[in-house]
Amino acid sequence: MTAAHHSLVTRRVRFDLSRTPLHWIPHDPDASYVTNSIHLLLPAGEFWFCRVYNKALPYVTNPTLREDVQGFVRQEAIHARSHETALNAYLRRHGVEIDSVLRVANFVFGQLLEERPVKLGQGFLARRLEKRLKKWQLRQQLAIIAAVEHYTCVLGKWVIEADALDAPNVDPDLRDLFRWHGAEEVEHRCVAHDLHAHLGGTTLERQAWALIGFPLLLGLLSYSSVHMMKQDPAVGGSFFFARWERASRRGTLPTLESLFGAALRYLNPGYHPAGEASLQEALDYFAKSPAVQAALARERERQAA
Ligand SMILES: [Fe+2]
Ligand SMILES: [Fe+2]
Fold it and tell me: How far is the CA of 126 from the centre of ligand 1 (A)?
């Protein structure tokens, strides 16, 4: 938690992607597919975050952190639903085969990272050990989420700031969806780290899971992007990371060096996400986001009725 506490806001945004082209960043299918991979990977991941956090909530004794965790869950659930809607209304409408990627995402977040049942017996010591093992597993899940949330904050900050995405022919609806999501990632960037630490999690646990999690995330992103790129004759056959590098020079993806630098920052024992981005920058984006402003207007109307 930061010194001046900011209460997380639930913004019930809606997006209409019925006019959004598949290459939503024009003349840049590479960046369009890498960003569109987010729609495939995030819903399974963010719903998993919510399940883990609901299990962790009874252990949270600090009322401010408890409020943060509840706010985090509400925001992540809306993120997941917004991207899931995009899957059906947008990627499927463009005829992209996405089921194989969804199967992998569901396996990773629905099976691989789920809690393993622990049954040691009925004796007092066995039950005590079971309880400790369950809590240990929960702490490891929280450490994984903290590592992923570092990158969602890094990417969130990047997407708000990326000047290349301000070009007038970039699809405004999808740009707003990614920037609203990115801004909320910046807004709640401290929750995962603070929750893991609050439940007794150590820096070493967070570092160890980051070393496993970062390559896994990059692997998932490249698999998902390449899967969609292969279906599109407009995309050339060059190596995935070479394409990424070219897009980053155009400013439509973050540079690979910046992502590597973010990994090194996370491994620093003094790391805390408060220093990764500015809350004010996120709040400034909400003030100009069409979807957020429309959601606030609906909320005002609802309260006035
Ligand atoms: Fe999110
Ligand atoms: Fe998040």
Answer: 38
